[in-house]
């Protein structure tokens, strides 16, 4: 697992060159955002040991298997760790896949997984997870949340954007890495989320797939324009 530091507080953990999870430094230890594919637990714990801080908290952006796959493994390796999950994510991880009233009746897509680990804390939009503000980010999945670091403007957006194969809003195909688009539940909601995340004016964009972007606003704007053109039936421009 490749470990790359960005700024003072963020470490990107990359497996197979394209699957990211993140460690965020706090005064009392590290917050793990996403647990990666199944079998990533030992690599995540070793990365924390290399950084020299303990993992004290685990959270997820959403319940797809490339983000929640190693949740049980990580929690087993770190007894007593706080597990902070969005309520909807916790429900999905229990195997329930029903949409809620008022949600677009689009087909759920992607590798939702069932995991035994129980949340010790339920999260809602606006909550603080250490220095990270929880931001609702549905569209790729109904349960997705993002995390905004109030200290330096880093946005950890899950799959609301991808940067692998080019920066794109969830649901917009990048043929060199099509999987996030293929696994997206509802493009109009994903576009609304992308616009909302852009209003945070992040200084750094960290996503589930692809490199971390510094000063990402121009690239986010371009990705949003492409998604808007797609929504209005215009020819998609790279």
Question: What does this 3D model show about the protein?
Answer:
- This protein has a 7-stranded mixed sheet.
- The model has no long low-confidence stretch (mean pLDDT 96).
- Helix 1 packs across helix 3 and helix 6 packs antiparallel against helix 7 (217-231).
- It is globular, with a radius of gyration of 16 Å.
- It has helices at residues 41-51, 65-68, 71-77, 87-93, 179-182, 187-198, 217-231; strands at residues 2-6, 10-15, 19-26, 29-33, 55-59, 82-86, 121-123, 128-129, 132-136, 145-149, 154-156, 161-162, 168-169, 204-206, 213-214.
- The chain has 238 residues and is an alpha/beta fold.
- A hairpin with a 4-residue loop joins strand 10 (145-149) and strand 11 (154-156).
- It has one domain: Metallo-beta-lactamase, Chain A.
- It is built from 7 helices and 15 strands.
Topology:
Elements: E1 2-6, E2 10-15, E3 19-26, E4 29-33, H1 41-51, E5 55-59, H2 65-68, H3 71-77, E6 82-86, H4 87-93, E7 121-123, E8 128-129, E9 132-136, E10 145-149, E11 154-156, E12 161-162, E13 168-169, H5 179-182, H6 187-198, E14 204-206, E15 213-214, H7 217-231
Parallel strand pairs: 4-5, 5-6, 6-7, 11-14
Antiparallel strand pairs: 1-2, 2-3, 3-4, 8-9, 9-10, 10-11, 12-13, 14-15
């Amino acid at each position: 697992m490749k470990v790359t530091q960005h700024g003072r507080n963020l470490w990107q953990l990359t497996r197979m060159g394209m699957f990211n999870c993140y460690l965020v430094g706090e005064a009392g230890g590290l917050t793990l955002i996403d647990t990666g594919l199944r079998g990533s637990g030992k690599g995540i714990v070793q990365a924390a040991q290399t950084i020299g801080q303990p993992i004290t908290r685990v959270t997820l952006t959403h319940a797809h298997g490339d983000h929640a796959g190693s949740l049980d493994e990580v929690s087993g390796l770190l007894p007593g760790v706080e597990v902070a999950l969005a309520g909807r994510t916790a429900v999905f991880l229990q195997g329930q896949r029903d949409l809620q009233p008022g949600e677009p009746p689009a087909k759920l897509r992607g590798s939702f997984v069932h995991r035994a680990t129980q949340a010790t804390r339920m999260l809602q939009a606006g909550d603080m997870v250490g220095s990270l503000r929880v931001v609702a980010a549905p569209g790729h999945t109904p349960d997705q949340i993002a995390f905004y670091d109030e200290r330096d403007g880093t946005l950890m957006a899950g799959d609301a954007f991808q940067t692998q194969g080019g920066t794109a809003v969830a649901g917009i195909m990048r043929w060199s890495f099509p999987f996030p688009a293929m696994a997206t539940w509802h493009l109009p909601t994903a576009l609304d989320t992308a616009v909302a995340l852009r209003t945070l004016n992040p200084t750094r964009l960290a996503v589930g797939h692809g490199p971390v972007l510094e000063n990402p606003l121009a690239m986010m704007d371009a990705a949003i324009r492409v998604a808007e053109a797609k929504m209005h039936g215009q020819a998609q421009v790279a």
